[in-house]
Queue: 2 jobs
Job 1
Amino acid sequence: MGIIDAIRTGLSELWSHKLRSALTMLGVIFGVAAVIAMVSIGEGAKQETLEQIKRMGIDVVHVRRAVIAGELLEKAQERSPYGLTYGDAERLRSVMSFAKQVVPVREVFANVKIEEKPVSVKVVGTIPGYEEVTHSLVERGRFLRWIDISENRPVCVLGAAAKRELFGFDDPIGKMIKIERRKFRVVGQMQAKEIGAAKAFAALRDLNSDVYIPITISMTDFQIFTQQAVPATMQTLREMYQRMRSRQARDKTPISEVIIQVENESATVPAASIIRSVLNRAHRGIRDYEIIIPAELLRQSQETQRIFNIVMAAIASISLLVGGIGIMNIMLATVSQRTREIGIRRCVGATRWDIIRQFMLEALVITCIGGTIGIFAGIGGAHAIADYAKWRTVVSVQAVVISFSVAALVGVIFGLYPAVRAAMVDPIEALRYG
Amino acid sequence: MALIEVYNLKKTYQIGTVDVPALRGVTFSIDPGEFVAVMGPSGSGKSTLMNIIGCLDKPTSGKYILDGKDVSRLSDWARAEIRNSKLGFVFQSFNLLPRMTALANTLLPMLYGSRRRNRKAAREALEAVGLAHRLHHTPMQMSGGEQQRVAIARALVNNPPIILGDEPTGNLDTATGREIMAIFRKLNEDGKTIIIVTHELDIARYARRILRFRDGLLESDEPVVD
């Protein structure tokens, strides 16, 4: 029997039992649709994370002040009492000549007021280049300049949310705000920065409510913001003024973070190991800082995502398996119902192989039709999820091809046993039957 | 040369641990163009003989030579090919595929084997049995006699030298049975070798030779005298 004849026989057999065929197919349809929808969700999530992290920049290494406690604290106070300092940033800058930018950041405790009204924003001391390493853009005015730093000019740049808090929809450029007792002139405003899911992956702050001031002023006038809050006592204030006096003192001023920007993503890991060795020596073995590599975090999150996707697809595949069992069940019923037909076909010259092929093709036709419908259902499902849950879904060709092939394979595997059973029917018995 | 030769043919069925002999050494031969009736009470071994001649079953021992070739030990594949090209089957219960038209049923043997599908041959076979007007009817829409004619057309379509009938008139009334037997006789006159199994002497008398079986042995082999 030719393939075409066998397929035609299969189709007419399915057509003559429409309800039964439809129900059998339903299992495959759901299976394929579930796999495609699941993989699309996973793929969408992956792309979303990737884009967000890329927006945040993956060509940087963050060195952040770490909170230490317990036994280590005593040793730390002796060997590296200041934690991460401005001196560390300078040291890194001189060692890492290949770095594009080395930017120190000092978050400080400071109340901000506009017309005597307190506002919840975060004051951050930094230097020019910060906007580049954080991949932020200036919306209006300008960012800090070197002259602001060297001359200790009381100017500030507002993050998008900070600007809204302080000025609503007004133009803030040239206006004054009060940080603690000092007045600062607003020279620029940043564009809003979407952070979304990337925040969790790269452990990044929301930069929108920042108010940027020259790092020099942040070091002399304000106290660093730490997890372990220290109230401003006379002693700490005195220390602060002492720091101002000498370069050596400035080197010992604690800062919150140093952001190092390198040539590209692949340079981040070697850069991190240089940073680690420089700081290890400077801090005499005390790990009172942490090194964060967004590119690494991204890689890890992609790995997690990949495993998650595989698990999701595997779970969805179970329904495909169940569909396959449904096919086997129906095919077995079909074989016993059509014993006589098998006998007749054998009698007029069908070999065992002809019979196997006929029943296998019937199972395959069910799964292929079901698989095709399932592909459309899956794509439709992915779109529905995207619309309803506002998740991004990406239907990949790979998912479509794989799920369809798996469905076809299921048809072959679960069609095989019933087909072999059919071929084993004794034609003499079959013709006597019924 | 004989078309069918069987030598000391034996067939024993095993039911549980008991051996049940169905054929206990049968020898005869049939020449091309013969019309043979096989008779005997039930349990005489005539059905077993027909299954072996029809290449649906293998003998336990002995030889079965069909058209000069020993077919008693052939593989499943080779026997399917013989059923397809050398033998045509007609059954008591017609054995048509119920959802297919007369034409599709007649075409069935052409789906297997090496032959190409030939609608013209199928149509001609149906015309030969007087069913030119029933090509697109399904078995459900036809009388018993018509169904048996479709079965004969199916047996003829690959133009085999031998037609086997297993009580072909058993489910038909007397008049229709005679019509069917007339067709068989016509086919025989056209050169087909025909072997039918029957209980009824009236039917057997259409043949030219009667083989009688009893208890797995050939009891008598005599020509029909008109």
Job 2
Amino acid sequence: MSSDETLLQISGLKMYYETLRGWVRAVDDVTLTMQKGDSFGLAGESGCGKTSIAMSILRLLPSNAKIIDGKIVFENIDILALPEEKLRREIRWKKISAIFQGAMNSLHPTMPIGKQIAEAILAHEKVDKKEALERAGKLLDLVGIGAERLDRYPHELSGGMKQRTMIAMALACNPHLVIADEPTTALDVIIEAQILQVMKELQRKLGLSMILISHDLSIIAEICNKVAIMYAGKIVEYGTVVDIYKNPLHPYTQKLIAAFPSILGRKTELASIEGFPPNLLAPPPGCRFHPRCPYATDKCKKEEPELIDVGKGEQHLVACHLVG
Amino acid sequence: MPKSDEDVIVKVEKLKKYYPLKVGFFKALFTKKIPFVRAVDGISFQIKREEVLGLVGESGCGKTTTGKCILKLIEPTAGKIIFDGTDITNLPEKEMRKFRSKMQIIFQDPYESLNPRLSVLDIVAEPLTIQKIEEDPDKVRERVEKVLDAMGLTPPEEFLYRFPHELSGGQRQRVAIARAFVVNPEFIVADEPVSMLDASIRSEVIKLMKRLLKEFHCSYLYITHDIALARYMCDRIAVMYLGKIVEKAATEDLIKKPLHPYTEALLAAVPVPDPTARRIEVVIKGEVASPISPPPGCRFHPRCPYATDKCKKEEPKLTEVSKGRFVACHYPLS
């Protein structure tokens, strides 16, 4: 489904948080390209900067966060240079929308779900209320809730249905890109599988481009075709899911994949990584993974590795001195 | 005590826990039956020494309630709990105290289960002083240091005077585990002990818990929703659905060849960290029914793809189909 049309291009993005103790380098020099039709997985452990990237794309930043450097180009529009008002009217939700973690908390408790979805449409398009509600009904059909539930309030729905409502809402203005931040984290396994199925169907039906942010590599394997692995504010490896999962090159990626339990195949020892992710106030010099890396050399402690392409055919980027 | 039961540490028989539902004053006057939430509805199992029994199921199926009932943190409605040969079901609190140090619990969220105002030393020492096991401060400190060392928090003296906010998630959970192990327990209820942790740290904690099992000769009731992780931790797994155990078997048997349709569905829904492996295909529809008025017959029948008329009327009993394999289904899969 993916074509060669570039949808999103992030280059040299640096997003820091200002704290009393200094700058927290949450996203530090991240470059990535996304093609139209891709479903792009952004994986990594908590605090590695994956959500910060998503928030930078939508420019929904907390007051102490600053984009220090870099460029985000979406469909040839420079997002970071856009005036706030224009961004709000023309990009946010209309072109790029988001599904946030914890659906239970992001819906308005005293407004029927149909009205909430219609509200998003009315804010961005010149349609009347009736048409907006009609479209909301169609969206609820699309995600498997059914238009007859337009008048329901969030408390009448289960967690899975609320999350479906959030997906419907994200699709309200026919966006070109949907960012899903841990869309299934608070849900039970079976409900999670149902939501993943809805998302896969939408990919197929609408040719949706998607960024899926998750700490769970199993979910990314389930619905993405490209994946970027992040560690301490940097992308350490990027490629197609098959390349990354079958032939991981960065020691962190290798360990992380081996740390995930699987119910298939023979039971093998779960890998673990000793130590803890670094403090982003003062990340270690050289490769940020070197204090935890079993193969670290002197070079790793001093010099920062660059992302290099080692792929045959498809792009496979890795930032490690020991590869290539 | 019969000899064959000697290595059984915990035995649960037909355990039930019903919570009465809050109803209005007039409704309470005029209705004969106050509705109950049947959180746990007649389950039985036993755990041997150095064994890990996994209790797997979706949220609201009664796993945590079961764990808390065994520890008598909540009073069971009916049934029996036998700990090391003694029936502790109706033991008065004073006598129960003797058993408290032998049974411990590890909670899910290390960010909430540790008192933020206490230092690591105080947190871990608390069970020792409360149980009056050790009162000399030097000896308490020595024991705390020893247990922290066993948790991989080394060197222990570096952690003693730290506060929870100075620790990472993995370190906090190790402190929570240290607190449980400081009294040399024989049985531990581990309620989702790693679900809040990142993958790279999660497997470290799992390995630690497995090592401690042998070192301390204790047993776990491992409560989790993650069947893939349970595979690495548990010797046997019991699958719960709406307050009942629907299947119970040795871990690998259960995962390789589930007999109950619910277990099958649960396994089919688990995502796999491999893009070339089988994709999630069959997903059962709908969601868990309400435990207030569970469906008649088999509780799983409204969602079961194989349900027949018999399933709607008759409740299947948990029966042993082969050695150590129990299933509660009229038509077990083959």
